[in-house]
Amino acid sequence: MKTVQISILARVYGNVNADENIGNRITLKKFYSSEGEVLPFVSARAIKYSIREALKNSEFKTDPFVNERTVLADSGDPITYVDNDLFGFMVPVKREKSGKGESIKRQAPVAISYFKALKNTPISTEFGAKFPKEGDSNPTPFEVEVSDFIGKLNVLIYDYIGKFKEQELKNVKNKENLEKNGDFYVLKKEEREKRLGKFLEILLTPKYVLPRRSNSLNIPEYIIAIIVLNKKGVLPIYQYLDYVIKDGKIEINKEKFEKLESLCKNSESELYIIDYENILNENIENKIDVNTVIQKIKEHLL
């Protein structure tokens, strides 16, 4: 199975993907490492939501969800809704009297990690107040946790976008655009390219806005991305994209990066780099722009 692995180093700031409210304080989602580090993060669910919104604002339909036994559930139609294809779905099926029942589900061909800070990050508090629009009542104070951090987002893409097993199509009404290919039903290549291309454009540009922002607009500021095209399977590449600060500037951890290059070479995988902020001063052969790498990924997977 061919795969594409993407790892993106980026900067975000503010209160992104806010967590729970504790009293009048809006907290920030964060991990605590075993060493006591504070690591803010944006959840994978929030990033998928952001990408869905960007897809919905383009030419694609996204799942409106259905009300199933008082909870929202996936529609389970990967032909009509592009996010059901890219991010998978799970539709609960009512159990029979015997107690047996099996869900209709699709394993996502696009897997997305948390966007998590790589280093210990201080959390600040921003103070504010909500003022009444009318009357002389006092304003209500509140607090918002904010941070400024450099984090990493990892993405894994398999080669079955637009390619479905028969059981994944039980909720699909219109199958006219599908072609039978062995044990699978496949969308036309043009449609598969369109779906993969638009997702990559949104992800790699980037063209998505992080959700649940409580006090500011936030689009990630990309620094560098590595893209690995694998002929078969997955490589342990994600730990090799890291950074250091030298003289107040961001630099890639060269020791780790050299290990990544060696790993890809020994595995006969193709390695490409998008250097958004020109932090790699050396003449690196595999630097590439967004449009070119999107085309290479489409040719590799489809």
Automatic annotation (TrEMBL):
Q: Which domain of life does the UniProt lineage start with? A: Archaea
Q: Which UniProt keywords apply?
A: Antiviral defense
What Pfam families would the database entry show? DevR
**What's this chain's function?**
CRISPR (clustered regularly interspaced short palindromic repeat) is an adaptive immune system that provides protection against mobile genetic elements (viruses, transposable elements and conjugative plasmids). CRISPR clusters contain spacers, sequences complementary to antecedent mobile elements, and target invading nucleic acids. CRISPR clusters are transcribed and processed into CRISPR RNA (crRNA).
What name does UniProt use for this protein?
Answer: CRISPR-associated negative autoregulator Cas7/Cst2
What are its GO biological-process terms?
A: defense response to virus
Q: What is the lineage of its organism?
A: Archaea, Nanobdellota, Nanobdellia, Nanobdellales, Nanobdellaceae
